[in-house]
Amino acid sequence: xxxxxxxxxxxxxxxxxxxxxxxxxxxxxxxxxxxxxxxxxxxxxxxxxxxxxxxxxxxxxxxxxxxxxxxxxxxxxxxxxxxxxxxxxxxxxxxxxxxxxxxxxxxxxxxxxxxxxxxxxxxxxxxxxxxxxxxxxxxxxxxxxxxxxxxxxxxxxxxxxxxxxxxxxxxxxxxxxxxxxxxxxxxxxxxxxxxxxxxxxxxxxxxxxxxxxxxxxxxxxxxxxxxxxxxxxxxxxxxxxxxxxxxxxxxxxxxxxxxxxxxxxxxxxxxxxxxxxxxxxxxxxxxxxxxxxxxxxxxxxxxxxxxxxxxxxxxxxxxxxxxxxxxxxxxxxxxxxxxxxxxxxxxxxxxxxxxxxxxxxxxxxxxxxxxxxxxxxxxxxxxxxxxxxxxxxxxxxxxxxxxxxxxxxxxxxxxxxxxxxxxxxxxxxxxxxx
Amino acid sequence: xxxxxxxxxxxxxxxxxxxxxxxxxxxxxxxxxxxxxxxxxxxxxxxxxxxxxxxxxxxxxxxxxxxxxxxxxxxxxxxxxxxxxxxxxxxxxxxxxxxxxxxxxxxxxxxxxxxxxxxxxxxxxxxxxxxxxxxxxxxxxxxxxxxxxxxxxxxxxxxxxxxxxxxxxxxxxxxxxxxxxxxxxxxxxxxxxxxxxxxxxxxxxxxxxxxxxxxxxxxxxxxxxxxxxxxxxxxxxxxxxxxxxxxxxxxxxxxxxxxxxxxxxxxxxxxxxxxxxxxxxxxxxxxxxxxxxxxxxxxxxxxxxxxxxxxxxxxxxxxxxxxxxxxxxxxxxxxxxxxxxxxxxxxxxxxxxxxxxxxxxxxxxxxxxxxxxxxxxxxxxxxxxxxxxxxxxxxxxxxxxxxxxxxxxxxxxxxxxxxxxxxxxxxxxxxxxxxxxxxxxxxxxxxxxxxxxxxxxxxxxxxxxxxxxxxxxxxxxxxxxxxxxxxxxxxxxxxxxxxxxxxxx
Lengths: 434, 505
Fold this sequence. Notes:
The structure holds two protein chains of two kinds. By secondary structure, chain A is mostly helical. Chain A is built from 15 helices and six strands. In chain A, strand 1, helix 3 and strand 2 form a beta-alpha-beta unit. The longest helix of chain A is centred in the first third of the chain and has 26 residues, at 10-35. The radius of gyration of chain A is 25 Å and the shape is globular. In chain A, 41% of the residues are buried. Chain B is built from 19 helices and no strands. The model of chain B has no long low-confidence stretch (mean pLDDT 89). The chains are: A mainly alpha, B mainly alpha. At the A-B interface, helix 1, helix 2, helix 5, helix 6 and helix 9 of A face helix 4, helix 9 and helix 19 of B.
């Protein structure tokens, strides 16, 4: 056989094998560094080559992990997509810190993820101020979890870097088949670039995002889109989209869930961390539209949400009693029924936009401004905050606030009977399907 | 530590090879065996060091028993048989506690309405494999079939890391003599190529199939009913996943061992090419079949005590084999299902000469292959499903009881059917699964390409057919480049950069 003239010895064979391996990995890593599809290093940003990075938008946690390290903020905003969309760093509340503020919120964030990102941001630059936006589903003693694109290996810790973290973090991302695929797709997509809906300070720009070509908000109109999100929310709440994957059959676990790993326990960790590091922490519960509250009520989740608020108040009261010489951490609940959260929907078929909401879950920047006004006591004559939006929750006020919210709920149901009936019908239909 | 992890591929394996071959190069052969034993224990302890406190004493106790029961001058010492029995009971007892205690307590509570409490017992890695190895060793020591008893060799035989976690179930006759051999470096080239093939099979092929199988089986476990195409796509995806997972792991085990100059037995030989279920079990998990035959089926009487007893032995052995795979009723059902397949196959073999005179032709062979494959797929549904109820629901969907829905990819071809609203496109799942299964059906297996027959030149099914000279491995530059590329692709596929889109975002 002709090739048998070239039989190799062991060292020769290994040298060629390892040489090929290193050449291949180096070539891939070089391409991935240059194209940088996830916005990790930004060494090269060239129009027509890699300036448009569509892969980044589906990996926001990854992108923000590197971006927050690069920007070294002193103030950050933590939260979910609501906070991601609604809170801007150019607000007066950040006076003096506008250029050192970063919106570190991302879609579907859990308290566990927020805690790790808080530590990561603080490891990169000492934080002074943190605004934490919580959704009502965070206020639970159920275990907190992480989403598929959460990758702890790329996050730093204030306690210092772990050995080999560069290899398991950045290098692993560069020498990776998914990254290679994303690089090739990035190069191919440059001819179809869309305007970026990411602000440099991390905020998702609602007017850009919702007005993209093909986006349902633009295609079907704001009212139809609002209804679509209502239906999705009903499915989410009744089907448990976020439930953990089912594992193979095993005997039922006799080990109770670890209370230290609950969603509320991670909020506690955030509080403790901020106290220990002298970070000014301000917490708010996000102002979703009343439709979200009605869906929660129809699915029977309302008592659990109220208990979650009581539990959060208890955590903050404990913290205040431990730090009597310091200002108590402020918690403002925007999630009740107010003149903002009960905004009337456009009529069916209309293409009119709502003033305060993109959909029942996501509020617009003006509402985010109200939130920051209240949290930081900013008094803007051009933007007076409605008096019924946002109630301070403390041990002294929580029961009164909840009772007031019940009264407002009753009033809303009287005013918007058709909306409430429709939402309840959706929930009932979903329950029957289940 | 898993074979398909950065820690193993980039750190543990290269360092172990350097230490081992460095010592051998310096003429320290026994020291190299000691080093390999310690490295294997480190490999095992990486997962959970506490379980070294289980493995190490078991090695010592089994060795002590073996030295006591091995016949001297063809005579057994008094009490040898009792000691052998005690040794077997101890090994089975440890396996029983760690693997089956929760299962038995759960069933006891269900049956009698009791409320016995047992903390969740964590299963030590590889316990099912090294338990069988030690039992075989004890039995053969008692029978006087172990030529040399050496604690260091025995320790490495049990703990040798390439076979520790997922087999093959190595027989001492195959391994112990190799620890005394001086050569071995010449196998490194073959080993790294074997390992590269295995790694690619695992991380590229098996994991691609898993992306379609896992969500659909999980959906069924969560109460979702699949349609006919969805159920078949899930079952076939899992059939492909398991094939490349096991095949890949077997290749990696052989490859890792070869790099240390040790030849492990072939454990996997193109099982989906089997033309009968008997043939399947000579190709699938070959060393388990061998253990069950030699240490369960034959001691029970095998086929020497009449036809009814033969079938009873067969059924017991296969159910035991099923239960060995996992502590759940679905594994027992899987074992029972294969026992019935084998019984039917044996009955057909006995009956066929009476009704058909001609030898089996091409059509009959192909029909046999098709029937065997479908029977195996049905078995895998029980093997993978969360429980027997889910398996039955999946099978019900596979026979069309829950209708047909057209996935988005096939909607144009199936206009009369409603559009499927599932997370997985069953059309894509079927396409990927069938492509992978075509490889399993048509391509030569790794040992054929490498011309590898294991430690004792054992002839295994599928070995006889040759491969083209283009595919046959030789230590030439082209093969070295191919190996480097395979390793590179596999390394780049070891971890995912997952996407997450919330709601419509």
